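Thread: quick sanity check before group meeting

JM: Hey all, I'm pulling together slides for Thursday and realized we never actually wrote out the predicted structure for the chain we discussed last week. Dropping the sequence here so it's in one place. If anyone has concerns about the input, flag it before I start.
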Amino acid sequence: MKIKSLVTNAIVAALYVAVTAILAPISFGAIQFRVAEMFNHLIIFNRKYIFGIVSGVFISNLFFSTIVGYDLIFGVGHSLLSLLITSKLIKKVSNVWVKFFINTLIFTALSSLIALELYLAFSVPFWFGYLTVGIGELGIMAIGAPVMLYLDKKVHFNERIEG
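JM (edit): ok, ran it. Output follows.
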């Protein structure tokens, strides 16, 4: 990994952790709105952001989760799997809004992993957990898409990560 890409991913991870830490009370649990999840849309601009996003999730879950072991497996797994699937599905898609839609759909659908985690850790009924976490994920990703597109016009995400 080139230095520029490594540093950019470190910044993404740090931003993910900072946003999650500041909003920790709403970032964890059966009803959650993890605002930092909007950074998942960085995959739309360049696949190289996977490392920074997943690192941010890992560090956030390691330091702020009350169920660290579960969150390191299920939370990190959810992010990594969703990002990998999205990166494969959007390769030949040219419309940025379709890419955002696909990414949002994948993350929301795979929230089932977090519902399973909540069931195993706290006996939260699976479908209740899936509904509440899924709604939170869908909301944050839907609101995050235009925010990330606006930021891209100012910051140019692809240029920031390419060496």
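AS: nice. Residues 3-161 form a domain with the Arp2/3 complex 21 kDa subunit ARPC3 fold (CATH 1.10.1760). The mean pLDDT is 96.
JM: adding both to the slides.
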